[in-house]
């Protein structure tokens, strides 16, 4: 470490006493001989902190936070050394610029270390205290454990083919983390700096959280909770939320690098339908193109793309095609993307002023200058032919950007980009500044282009590289992973951290992209992926095939059963997707997100997560091992999803074990539950929270198929019993103007075993696919009677499953169903 670095830090500590503290709108500005710090409250819980080393702040611009959000100001009450909001107290030491943020009761949320700000040339380091009880999550899909504590990470988007479980950096840069366990509750920190930033969570210095960058603005946000959920939602308020995806994006998706011809693609679709594997999407990798050139088609292998799309559509299957961002350098060959790009000067320049050319899949290639608004607009128009064919979505790959035949795997740092949007003054910038946001701007151009070309349809874009805020434009996946048990476990932790980092829609290549999975590994990965946001089976060229049927009928049957279960759960999954669009709550969450006490549970929960807080998936923390393992279920009571029965196990109260119980009543409401699970190939343990009303539907082969039969509402009696229905047409923007259905359903359990279910009146004008509902009440021990609005209804008792089922006409206007024992 450079001595000069610490000398500069010491100068900051020893700043003269003639510091100035001045109020500004929504906060305070502190100026001393070394630097100027400005702290403002955008909302009562969200602070923006900017530091200028020479008294002049960097331009007020951002690729992640829009200008309207940056201009927000909360009401504040000035103090002698800071200010307070309705939620926080902010203190700045004018001598050192040390920042301390507490709640209104004085509990510390985040506090700087003794040497809070240091400069080293154009670089900077921020140092914050790291309490012993604190844990850290986020930073996107970094490798390593779910908890970042003890680790050190670099943000530099990197083509990391076959990355290891400890490789860093990889494909995305999301300089945002969530801290939990502090005295003042959870908080988030977002460093809005696109350069090669870094984060150290006590790796180099014990109990010190350090972060910095070699250049660029000192511009960061502190987001107070106190709950983790509140932090994540407010981060969504700051950087934007994922738009509501088309419903088919939640279905099963089949891919390979590559399906080489239209004939092979049709054969894959036919086999999926023959084997009754519900499927919504087939993906085409780069070999569908002419000589790997984006915006072309290999007409020998795919002679009629529109016909292929149409034929797959009759089977309920959509086509998603890859379009890498590089454009083949093909002058005088009638290649329109290159010709029109040259005519409009749309490509990135080398340091010598000439167009930058480098090898990628098509050979010598040029690269759109996505930091220009006009270039993004031009690029979006290039998708017109694919849209006209009926291609459902676009896959943006290689957008770190990846470059062949160079040790850095990317552009030289002195490559020149032109910036003219997002609040930045029109100027040029080197690739060192633009690199981490380049992939995000690629997806922005793609997303905006699809929305312009199909303004009434939702756009679907998948990306490999991105930056904070990129969730507004694309779903993502974890890149070129490996067929190993370690990577199966890593995928869960990556998807959870992506969800906490704003990317609610995320995937890992099922089975692993490279290496080839064993039959058992692929089957277990199917079971895991069935309960993740995006479910795509994908494998590399020259590896064993990984379609569901490749390992014989026994494995196919298990894999199909989990795909089918996902489709039966589609009403619940789609409701979580819509909730994410409104609130920012992830679809896939760490258990502690909804149950904070789970963070200190005794079980290894590295393969445990929830879908929306109501379904808890308890995977084997050593997925390759047949050894039994412990499952810890949070207090409140749980049901086994597969049997529908209340869970039995050893109950753990605050003072240790309490009596064994079979129902979510009495002590179970305040005690967690521990049980043992012996792994088997065909079982993934899944549990339903007591007090859940879970919607399910009849099995379909794709989301385009209308379910036949009633909507099911499974009622699992317990405290705070409720559920929500959300539906729309699944693909258009009509929901934005009221063409949707939203209904709240609640229940309560009386001491005599009676269950009362209340249907609130519906919102929206969407007419659903069902005309009847079947309400299935669990944990029943005898036949019951049912009344709807006082009128008797037929109730069917199933002693094998312990349920009572009542089929009703649809209930749009509000009603009350009572089921007695």
Structure overview:
- It is a single chain.
- The protein is an alpha+beta fold.
- Helix content is 19%, strand content 29%.
- The chain has 14 helices and 50 strands.
- The strands form 9 sheets. A 9-stranded antiparallel sheet has the order 5-6-7-8-9-10-16-15-12, covered by helices on one side. Strands 1-2-3-4-17-14-13-11 form an 8-stranded antiparallel sheet. An 8-stranded parallel sheet has the order 29-28-27-24-20-19-18-30.
- α7 packs across α9 (431-453) and α11 packs parallel to α12.
- It starts with a helix and ends with a strand.
- The model is unreliable at 1-16 and 658-668 (pLDDT under 50).
Give the secondary structure arrangement, pairings included:
Blueprint: H1 3-13, E1 20-24, E2 27-31, E3 36-43, E4 46-52, H2 67-70, E5 77-79, E6 82-84, E7 88-92, E8 99-103, E9 108-120, E10 123-129, E11 135-138, E12 152-154, E13 176-180, E14 187-191, E15 198-201, E16 208-213, E17 218-224, H3 228-239, E18 252-254, H4 262-274, E19 281-284, H5 305-314, E20 318-322, E21 327-328, H6 336-343, E22 358-360, E23 363-366, H7 373-381, H8 384-389, E24 393-396, E25 416-419, E26 427-430, H9 431-453, E27 461-463, E28 475-477, H10 485-500, E29 506-507, H11 519-529, E30 535-537, H12 553-568, H13 570-583, E31 588-589, H14 591-594, E32 608-611, E33 615-618, E34 629-633, E35 638-640, E36 649-653, E37 656-661, E38 672-677, E39 686-689, E40 692-696, E41 711-716, E42 722-727, E43 741-749, E44 755-759, E45 772-778, E46 785-788, E47 791-793, E48 796-798, E49 803-809, E50 815-820
Parallel strand pairs: 18-19, 18-30, 19-20, 20-24, 24-27, 27-28, 28-29, 41-45
Antiparallel strand pairs: 1-2, 2-3, 3-4, 4-17, 5-6, 6-7, 7-8, 8-9, 9-10, 10-16, 11-13, 12-15, 13-14, 14-17, 15-16, 21-23, 22-23, 25-26, 31-32, 32-33, 33-39, 34-38, 35-39, 36-37, 36-38, 40-41, 42-43, 43-44, 44-50, 45-49, 46-47, 46-50, 48-49
């Amino acid at each position: 470490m450079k001595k000069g670095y610490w000398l500069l830090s010491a100068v900051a500590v020893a700043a003269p006493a003639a510091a100035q503290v001045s109020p500004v709108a929504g906060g305070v500005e502190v100026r001393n001989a070394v630097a100027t710090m400005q702290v403002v409250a955008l909302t009562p819980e969200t602070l923006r902190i900017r530091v200028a080393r020479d008294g002049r702040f960097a331009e007020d611009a951002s690729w992640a936070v829009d200008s309207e959000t940056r201009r927000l100001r909360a009401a504040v009450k000035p103090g002698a050394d800071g200010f307070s909001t309705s939620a926080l107290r902010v203190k700045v030491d004018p001598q050192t610029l040390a920042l301390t943020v507490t709640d209104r009761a004085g509990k510390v949320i985040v506090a700087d270390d003794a040497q809070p700000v240091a400069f080293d040339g154009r670089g900077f380091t921020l140092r914050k205290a790291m309490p012993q009880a604190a844990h850290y999550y986020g930073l996107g899909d970094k490798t390593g454990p779910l908890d970042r504590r003890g680790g050190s990470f670099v943000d530099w988007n990197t083509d990391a083919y076959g990355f290891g479980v400890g490789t860093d950096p990889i494909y995305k840069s999301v300089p945002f983390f969530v801290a939990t366990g502090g005295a003042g509750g959870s908080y988030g920190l977002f460093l809005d700096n696109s350069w090669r930033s870094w984060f150290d969570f006590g790796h180099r210095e014990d109990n010190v959280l350090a972060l910095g960058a070699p250049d660029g603005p000192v511009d960061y946000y502190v987001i107070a909770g106190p709950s983790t959920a509140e932090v994540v939602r407010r981060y969504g308020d700051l950087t934007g939320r994922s738009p509501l995806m088309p419903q088919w994006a939640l279905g099963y998706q089949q891919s390979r690098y590559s399906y080489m011809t239209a004939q092979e693609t049709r054969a894959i679709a036919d086999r999926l339908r023959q084997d009754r594997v519900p499927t919504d999407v087939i993906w085409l990798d780069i070999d569908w193109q002419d000589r790997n050139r984006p915006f072309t088609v290999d007409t020998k292998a795919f002679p009629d793309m529109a016909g292929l799309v149409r034929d797959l559509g009759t089977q309920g299957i959509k086509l998603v095609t890859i379009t890498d961002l590089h454009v083949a350098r093909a002058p005088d060959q009638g290649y329109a993307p290159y010709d029109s790009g040259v005519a409009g000067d749309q490509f990135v320049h080398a340091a010598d002023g000439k167009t930058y050319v480098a090898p990628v899949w098509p050979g010598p290639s040029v690269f759109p200058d996505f930091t220009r608004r006009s270039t993004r607009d031009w690029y979006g128009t290039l998708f017109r032919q694919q849209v006209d064919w009926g291609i459902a979505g676009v896959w943006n790959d290689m957008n770190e950007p990846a470059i062949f035949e160079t040790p850095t795997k990317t552009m030289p740092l002195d490559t020149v980009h032109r910036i003219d949007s997002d609040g930045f003054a029109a100027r040029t910038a080197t690739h060192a500044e633009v690199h981490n946001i380049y992939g995000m701007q690629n997806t922005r151009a793609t997303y905006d282009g699809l929305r312009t070309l199909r303004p009434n349809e939702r756009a679907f874009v998948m990306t490999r590289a991105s930056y904070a805020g990129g969730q507004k434009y694309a779903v993502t996946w974890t890149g070129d992973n490996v067929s190993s048990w370690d990577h199966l476990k890593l995928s869960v932790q990556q998807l959870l951290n992506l969800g906490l980092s704003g990317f609610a829609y995320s995937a890992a290549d099922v089975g692993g992209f490279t290496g080839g999975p064993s039959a058992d590994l692929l089957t277990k990965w199917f079971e895991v992926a069935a309960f993740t946001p995006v479910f795509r089976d994908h494998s590399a060229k020259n590896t064993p095939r990984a379609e569901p049927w490749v390992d014989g009928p026994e494995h196919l049957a298990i894999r199909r059963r989990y795909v089918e279960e996902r489709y039966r759960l589609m009403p619940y999954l789609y409701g979580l997707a819509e909730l994410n669009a409104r609130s920012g709550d992830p679809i896939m969450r760490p258990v502690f997100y909804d149950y904070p006490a789970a963070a200190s549970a005794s079980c290894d929960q590295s393969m445990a997560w929830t879908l929306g807080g109501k379904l808890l998936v308890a995977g084997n923390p050593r997925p390759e091992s047949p050894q039994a393992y412990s499952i810890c279920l949070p207090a409140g009571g749980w049901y086994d999803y597969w049997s529908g029965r209340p869970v039995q196990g050893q109950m753990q109260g605050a003072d240790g074990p309490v009596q064994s119980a079979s129902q979510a009543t009495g002590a179970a409401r305040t005690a967690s539950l521990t049980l043992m699970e012996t792994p088997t190939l065909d079982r993934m343990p899944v549990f339903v929270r007591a007090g859940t009303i879970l919607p399910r539907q009849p099995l379909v082969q794709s989301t385009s198929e209308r379910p036949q039969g009633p909507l099911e509402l499974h009622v699992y009696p317990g405290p705070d019993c409720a559920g929500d229905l959300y539906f729309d047409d699944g693909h258009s923007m009509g929901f934005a103007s009221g063409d949707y259905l939203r209904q709240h359903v609640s229940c309560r359990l009386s001491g005599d075993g009676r269950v009362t279910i209340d249907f609130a009146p519906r919102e929206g004008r969407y007419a659903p696919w069902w005309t009847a509902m079947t309400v299935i009440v669990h944990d029943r021990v005898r036949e019951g009677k049912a009344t709807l609005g006082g009128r008797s209804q037929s109730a069917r008792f199933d002693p094998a499953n312990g349920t009572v089922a009542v089929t009703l006409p649809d209930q749009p206007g509000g009603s009350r169903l009572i089921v007695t024992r």
